[in-house]
Design a protein that fits this description.
The complex is a heterodimer of chains A (237) and B (46).
Chain A (H helix, E strand, L loop, with lengths): L1 H10 L5 E5 L10 H8 L5 E4 L1 H7 L6 H15 L6 E7 L3 H13 L3 E8 L6 H14 L16 H22 L5 H26 L9 E5 L17
Parallel strand pairs in A: 1-2, 1-3, 3-4, 4-5
Chain B lengths: L3 E3 L12 H13 L5 E3 L2 E3 L2
Antiparallel strand pairs in B: 1-2
Classes of the chains: A alpha/beta (237), B alpha+beta (46).
């Protein structure tokens, strides 16, 4: 089903450039953009990674600002190119893909369609589960529950999560007899990456789904996807 | 473009690293050897 759907996306005569919104370094899949590139010979395919953009950016920002930042980079890299394009959002980047589509329109692009592949909408429990998963992997024991509502103050929440993860990661490094200064830098980088990921999820919960001026299609549920997701099909992000 | 060495905290199937992966990632960063991901904000796939 999904191979056919992806082929249809890729082969659409009016689809224009294909822009995927996904997490290529983090996803369970091999990369939606790569799959589309294989499926659609001759079509221009770009990939946007919002979590890396957040991680490398000057600040943690809301979806609207992040989308504008991403689209400005896209525009800078392909000046004077065709404005027709199709936005493809993967999994928990689905809601953000709406914002990207809106930002493209605001910049003069003409999105032909917004396609959501296995789109999901994270909730507060998703944020906590992702945090708790890493916490446990770093050796923290016992059950845990959010000490406060995570959405009341996202800035305070992300600060608390970062401090907690940094503590767990440093304890883990010490426990592994790997307590060099370089390891400390690695801890900071890992925690920074996770902070960006958790912030992205927090914003997905806090954000609305803005209207877009093009057709929106939900391609498939995760079980239908033929993206070589196994054995982690239940945990794609 | 905007690339840097990045450890893969979620890389192996969208999940948190286990102890071995974490240590491997930390060692990779610490020694600046090859084998880690280069994260990019935006790239042309084709």
């Amino acid at each position: 089903m999904s191979r056919i759907a992806l082929r249809q996306i890729a082969a659409g005569t009016d689809a224009g450039c294909l822009l995927t919104v996904e997490f290529p370094g983090d996803s369970a899949g091999p990369g939606l953009a790569a799959t589309l590139a294989e499926t659609a010979p001759g079509r221009e395919v770009w990939r946007l990674d919002p979590v890396t953009t957040l991680d490398l950016g000057p600040d943690l920002c809301d979806y609207e600002t992040l989308a504008a930042r991403c689209v400005a980079e896209f525009d800078r890299l392909r000046p004077d190119s065709e404005t027709a394009l199709t936005v493809v959002g993967y999994c928990s980047a689905a809601r953000f893909a709406y914002h990207v589509t809106g930002a493209l329109t605001a910049l003069g692009y003409a999105p032909r369609a917004l396609v959501l592949v296995a789109g999901t909408v994270p909730d507060e429990r998703t944020v906590w589960t992702e945090y708790d998963d890493l916490r446990r992997k770093l050796g923290a024991a016992g059950p845990s529950e959010p000490p406060f509502p995570l959405l009341d103050d996202p800035d305070a929440t992300i600060g608390w999560l970062r401090a907690e993860l940094t503590g767990h990661a440093r304890a883990f490094v010490d426990d592994q007899d790997f307590g060099t200064a370089e390891a400390g830098a690695a801890v900071d980088e890992i925690v920074g990456r996770y902070q960006a990921w958790l912030w992205f999820l927090l914003q997905a919960v806090a954000s609305d789904t803005p209207p877009v001026g093009c057709p929106t299609t939900d391609v498939a549920d995760p079980g239908d996807l033929d993206l070589d997701l196994a054995p982690h099909a239940a945990r794609h992000v | 473009m905007n690339g840097r060495l990045i450890t893969p905290p979620l890389a192996a199937g969208g999940r948190a690293p286990d102890r071995v992966e974490f240590r491997t990632a930390a060692e990779a960063l610490a020694t600046a050897v090859t084998g880690h991901l280069e994260a990019t904000t935006m790239e042309r796939v084709r």
